[in-house]
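User: Structure please.
Assistant: Input sequence and predicted structure:
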Amino acid sequence: MEENLQERLAHLKAQGKTKLVVLGRFQPFHKGHEDMIRAALATGLTVYISIDHRVDEKYNPYSPPQRKQMIHSVFPEIDLDHILVRKTVASGNGPDITENIDLLIKELSVVTPPEETVIFYARKMQDKKDIIINGVSHQAVHVIDFLCRPHGPYELLEMSPEAMKGVRHASNFRKNVIACNDMLAPQVAAYVMTEHALANMNNRPVGAGKIHDKPIINAAQSPDASISTGEYQQKLLKEGKVIIVGEYKDPKHKDNSR
């Protein structure tokens, strides 16, 4: 955890900021997010988490309910009503996004008024976009700059460059969920592995609904002493169940250790 993070939060609290909104995609929820939230809770701030509603196979594989589950598994003390799903702020070389920025500010203000709130955001170079605000084109800027000061009403707290160096970019998780498990809380790592297992075994995207999924059963050992493990596994297969034997290994993962 960044050493002076709690001090920075305490300073903001002394200025009347009693609420913290952690803004991100959380694809997935990793230890960088976790450290920020722990520091905020330790400071006595009320924490809100704003997650992007987007879902796509390549960049945003986990659905909002999946990300809520990840976060809540680590922080059960955070009310689910404090995990907000926001509309995506359109960016890039598209239309004027003034209306979308105004809508996001309005939605946040209902729950977290600007005068009481600080927004945490990890600014990355690859997040810079060319956008249009009020008919004016802005090149290579962060959308967050129009939600927060100097252009928007909210106070911004950024992760320091030193802390950013210690957090691998989230795309690494999506490329290789096993190798990057050390950057996830154990609960999240287990959840992500299960979700990938379900997706692979049922031939569907990770973020798709699971209503038609076959359940995963760890059949490494029979729960019934009177039935051998082999017989138990055969019984499950005949019933059409999806089984794993021992620890699940992602079939897309290449072991380069040999």
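Residues 214-252+254-258 form one domain.
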